[in-house]
Amino acid sequence: MAATGFFGGQRYRIVWTAVVGFLLLAGAGAAVLLISPTTCLMTFVMGAGTVGSVYLSAGLADGRPGRQVARQVAKWSLRSGALALALCGYVVTAGWTTIALVVAVAATSPYVVKHLWTPASTVEQYSDEELCLAWCLSTTALESAGSADERLAITATRLSYLDELERRQPESFTAWMETTPGPAADPSDFFVRTDHHTSPE
To answer: Which phi and psi (to 5°) does residue 90 adopt?
Structure first.
């Protein structure tokens, strides 16, 4: 079972967010010190207004609750306004080097690291024992998930574990299901007898 490690986990996301937050504050501070207040205000409003209008339109088109849309618009408007202000600050102080900074931040983002830099591992590559362990660990991960998107992703992964267990040992899977197992039930007693794992060609 491939370990996600630091670069694929929650700690990396926290560290990356903290670093980006510091960079935003530094850039925005430079903009406030070196650019006129009127220009700073216009930059912030343009950045916030552009992204905020996009989230407002998308939220209304999807029929989401008004309160949820308002929260999303406020959150992303503030972030985008701060980003626009920080970029101006870096352009004034660092010039074209700002492009390299933006590329570096994007390339090290948790999403990019997870999908491009972290070695891929699929459930087909797990042994039976590893697959059962992954199922048990995913229960803890689901309970500690911090957002709805994270819970959906973990739930989808758990379903892939079930599908793989059923594919490998349908009779054992049926026997396990007949016990009406709970979300945290360990399937090892039913599956970890003989390793039916075969590596895909």
So the answer is: -70, -35
d(CA 53, CA 72): 11
With tokens 């362990």, the residue in question is 133
CB 80 within 8 A of CB 47: yes
Task: For residues 65 and 131, give the distance between their C-alpha atoms in angstroms, rounded to a whole number.
Answer: 39
Which token pair is 106? 């994007």
Where does the pLDDT of residue 7 fall: very low under 50, low under 70, confident under 90, or very high at 90 and above? low
Instruction: Give the tens place of pLDDT for each residue, 47-105.
Output: 999 998 998 888 888 777 888 889 889 999 999 999 999 999 999 999 999 999 999 99
Give the Cα-Cα-Cα angle 2, 168, 127 (nearest 5 degrees). 25
Where helices occur in 95-127 by DSSP H, the ranges are: 97-107, 110-112
